[in-house]
Request: fold
Amino acid sequence: MQVYALLLLTLSLLALSNGITLQGTIDEKKLQLILQDGLKSKDIASLYYAIRGLKSINVVIPDICQDIRSSKYDIRSLEQVFYLTNAAALTGCQNVLTPDVLNTPTQTLDKKDATIQELYYAVYSLKALGKGSVYDKEDSLKNLIQLLKKDDTPANYGYVFALCEHIGCGDWTISHAEGVLQAADESDFKALHFEGGLPTTSTLLSTITRAYKSQKKPSPLSLEQKLKFGVYLLSRRSVNSAKGAALLLEAALAIANDEPTPIAITIKGKKYVTADSDSIEVSITDILQRPVKGLKADEVIAQSGTRLADDVVVLSKQALTQKNPTTFVLNLSKIKSQYGLYKIALSAGSKTASLNVAVLGEIQVTNCEVGLGDVDGTTSPKITNVPYPEELTEELQADHLQKLSLKFTVRDKQNKPVLVQQAFVRLGREDQPSLEAIFVAEPDNSKAYRVELNVGAIGKHLNQQSGVYDVSLFLGDSAVSNPIAWHLGEVSFRFEKGSVVGSVVVPRVAGALPEISHSFRRAEPRPARLLSDVFACACAAPLLLLLLLWARLGINFGNFPLSLSALLFHLSLGASLALYGVFWLQLTMFDTIRYLLPLAALTFLSGHRLLRRLARDKHTR
Reply:
């Protein structure tokens, strides 16, 4: 029974992991534009990465041999020679290079203390010039392994994997790839990346996947790892340099071309439907917005649709219509009259995703009543009906003994009362825009909204400034296509002067507020120097008394044990006492504890050994 339960749990976890999808894609066209702009750069590094990135997506590169020749580079810099030679090799422009570019990489290979990065630059520079065979396989691999033992960072593993592609030690890459992948850093249990950021992550992903493909072996990357690496790449999709675009493309291609590839299920265009438009478009692609291989149109299904307001299921097992290889259309005509927010559970083969869709509806205000009456309710309020979108025909007068009430109902297009997310009543003045007060309208059991404004109470919100105020109603909702801002009319308020007792009314003034200054309490005066000296002598009196008694009685060193433990014990004990003195004069408490710990350990061990010796001597005596 336990085995059966464990099997069910494992299958459920596998099903859950298979259902995870990416929450976005990388725009390949945008990266291509960045790379094409990089071709105009005079910097050899930007030029190299622009060429490398465009080559990775098979974009035709114009003749730029003269641009490579005239680019800025230092022939004594190994890294820049690497960029220069490889840019020339990728474009077939080796004939523009001079023979002296060989000097720097050749000298690097002759160095005994060359780093792995330098070896990578040197070997691939010589390879670009047709001289790559100078690096022997067996000896070089042994040398690289020895260097990795000294510095086994992920970046160095990436360089070694790349060198193995050239010298033919791909089997070594395969034997170490899984261990390197396990060393990837994880952020918030969502994203995987290597120390060193995008350059290291891109190099490792591309070299590992190429090594396994060359050996015709299944990828070591699980679908969960690909998804988490994909999440990290999506967080870096705002790159704006040729280097960043090229590295991002290479890493994304490594994931996208490795089956099974993670996919992205996202809404394309508008995320809402209205009475005039009853469908949404869903994009199903890989991370680079390419069609998903092997995905059939009848495998894309809206498994369920749930209204978030009351968790009512409104659709089930509805197939989508394929518009093009990456776009599918979901028709929501069945629910377009039921305005609100919905969660659609969509499946594409074995992958699932949840999409939030809004059904937008039109609202209208009905039965709007503006009432003016006494606060104590002794008289019936005067009710004025205001049809939407008209205004009050006359200006209302209200003093501090009255209250202004507002009642209205919000209805949808089918004339059913509905609730909205935002319902506010605003009081404001045209001549003083900063003087305003906003009140929330709350619905009752019949879904009718009410607001009651006690004029005497709201005066503190309006700085007790009597005058004519505009009354406006604001209604809004994320599922409403026509939010309402309705100017109801004008009301003249007369507030009681001096009604705010014991408080200061601060007017709302636009701009910077007055600076707040604060002064700390002055330090307590220190005692006189004489008093401090007397207190110090009182504290030292026991020690002085001990010294005087020793001087009178004499100290007997005859029984002092002559051993290393005795010497260490007394020295460490004396050092501890001296440390207390230094603490009193200079050290902090934490510094003292740090120094005292080793002294205490030494005192304990040597004292224990000394006591054992004294006990043994006493027993044999």
About this structure: The longest strand covers residues 364-374. Confidence is low (pLDDT under 50) at residues 1-18, 498-509.
